[in-house]
Design brief:
- This protein has 260 residues and is an alpha/beta fold.
- The chain contains seven helices and ten strands.
- It has helices at 24-37, 75-87, 107-118, 133-140, 160-164, 223-228, 251-259, and strands spanning 42-44, 47-49, 60-64, 92-96, 121-125, 147-151, 168-171, 192-195, 200-202, 214-217.
- Helix 2 runs parallel beside helix 3 (107-118).
- The longest helix has 14 residues, at 24-37.
Length: 260
């Protein structure tokens, strides 16, 4: 039995109490939307393209994951984040951890919920030096066709046990090999949302806690409103290059590398 969620690891997560900001009818419509959107899609790696869309239309979620007792999101709060993200039809979430995977047991019910309820591919970006045998066993309980582990290039060999267990291991800093950046400045925030540990959304992890790039708290309004609001920022500072220090774990960059 999971110490965090109280659910059997083999049991598909059950639906939780719905967010109070949405009516039952609205919630049903939002939760059913991703399944309707999946009809007739073309899958490519960790991305999903619908007819008439281009790569610029894709939307990703990048999250600094942590379950906080005070001032942060609970496991149920993170499950609601997944629900909201799925209402946009996104197909890829990267959870970046600033502490060892073994210290974040709440990540597993959230990943199962994303995969089993919405078919979303989940990536876990963590320190490869701290992976434990128990982490490997927990990873193996996920749908490995829709799961990725991302570590720094220097740590890939350290997580050979994950790869040996069938887990897809990716490099979290794909441009750390000395290759030139493909363009001088970053335009990727128009393709993703970022949520920090306290549940506050920004255009990118790079500008976390910078009020000029703050979007909203996850409890303030539905994600779809943020995407449609032309008054909200969808950028990072113009001086930020396409890939720089602080971009480790960026979902669109990771997907581009997986397909290259």
């Amino acid at each position: 039995m999971s110490a965090v969620s109280g659910r059997s690891r083999q049991q598909k997560p059950s639906r939780r109490e719905k967010s109070p900001r949405l009516s039952k009818k609205e919630s049903k419509r939002l939760f059913e939307l991703p399944r309707r959107l999946n009809d007739g899609v073309r899958k490519c790696g960790c991305q999903v393209l619908r007819e008439g869309e281009t790569q610029q239309d894709l939307l990703y979620l990048w999250a600094s994951f942590k379950v906080a007792d005070e001032g942060g999101l609970s496991v149920d709060g993170w499950l609601n984040v997944v629900d909201e993200a799925a209402s946009l039809g996104l197909n890829f979430i990267v959870f970046s951890l600033d502490s060892p995977l073994s210290e974040n047991p709440g990540i597993w019910p959230v990943c199962h919920w994303a995969q089993e309820t919405y078919g979303i591919t989940v990536g876990i970006h963590t320190d490869g030096k701290t992976i434990t045998p128990q982490d490997i066993e927990e990873f193996k309980r996920l749908d490995l066709s829709k799961a990725r582990l991302y570590v720094l290039r220097e740590d890939v060999e350290r997580v050979s046990g994950m790869a040996g267990a069938g887990v897809k291991v990716g490099v979290a800093d794909p441009r750390g090999d000395g290759r030139a950046n493909p363009q001088p400045c970053c335009d990727l925030p128009n393709r993703m949302l970022f949520v920090n540990q306290q549940g506050v959304m920004y255009t990118c992890k790079y500008v976390d806690n910078d009020d000029k790039f703050r979007l909203a708290h996850v409890k303030e309004q539905p994600f779809k409103n943020l995407v449609k609001d032309p008054t909200l920022p969808r950028t990072v500072p113009g001086s930020v290059p396409y890939v720089s220090h602080g971009c480790d774990g960026c979902p669109p960059i990771l997907c581009e590398e997986e397909q290259s």
